[in-house]
Design a protein that fits this description.
Layout lengths: L1 H5 L9 E3 L9 E3 L16 E8 L5 H14 L4 E8 L3 H7 L3 E8 L1
Length: 107
Amino acid sequence: MKSIEAAKAMELPPLCLSDEDSPWGSDLYIAVSKDVPGLHMARISGTFLTKVFEGPFKNTPKWAKEMEEYVKGKGRELQKIYFFYTTCPRCAKVYGKNSVVLLAQVR
């Protein structure tokens, strides 16, 4: 984040997606207004189906499976799932709920 802020490349409002590729790690995709030197840059484009889930963060694998079924039900082929967490764990406790948007990149 420091590199993005130093390059004055932070998009407002901020947007951060996670791919949750494994239980031990994930890649973060942070929206920026321009390329940031020294960071790996990726562009995400395509066709997406979205669905909102609510519940504890531990339900992430369950939501991914449900999203896979949703995509199949729409007659599409899943390429990748991105997660948009609307709150951090601490904020979810304060607000009393946790909404997570899953974005399925499809063909």
